[in-house]
Amino acid sequence: MEAKPGATGAAAGRVYEDFEPKMEWERELGDDTLRVHLPGFKKEQVRVRVTSSRVIRISGERQLSGDRWSRFLKEIPISSDFNHKEISAKFDGGILYVKQPKLIVPDAAKQQEQEKPPVESSTLDGMTPQEKAPPPSESAPRASETTTGEAHR
């Protein structure tokens, strides 16, 4: 952690300790959510801003004791796959959730089919029903080839 003396104004006399919050992504079909762990912070001490240059800027500071303050600043570029106008944030229980909706959502059915391995039906003896069924006999006449009785003459 880096300690820096404060500047002028309300921050005069403050000593800042910068820290890196733990962050993790939760990826889903329609959106991705960034979880930023901010233990000890309150909602009023955290700021989330989406810039015109497609960057999410997350910052915050809180007083530790006396003139000691803890602060952080994170900047996350927004991919062109996401709708930067619909980004939302929620702070709950020391975790900041930043939700980024995707512009193009893949067809849910296609996505699920691609993720699932092919299902093969089988029995306890390891043979599939197709393997157990006898192949159609080539010597058995088909319905269109049956004789009408001409052979009985």
TrEMBL record:
Subcellular location: Cell membrane
Organism domain of life: Eukaryota
One Pfam family it belongs to: HSP20
Topology versus the membrane: Single-pass membrane protein
Species of origin: Salix suchowensis
Main localisation: membrane
InterPro entries, alphabetized: A-crystallin/Hsp20_dom (IPR002068), HSP20-like_chaperone (IPR008978)
UniProt keyword list: Cell membrane, Membrane, Plant defense
Protein name in the entry: SHSP domain-containing protein
Domain SHSP intervals: 14-122
SUPFAM superfamilies from the UniProt entry: HSP20-like chaperones (SSF49764)
Family the UniProt entry places it in: Belongs to the small heat shock protein (HSP20) family.
Region named Disordered: 107-153
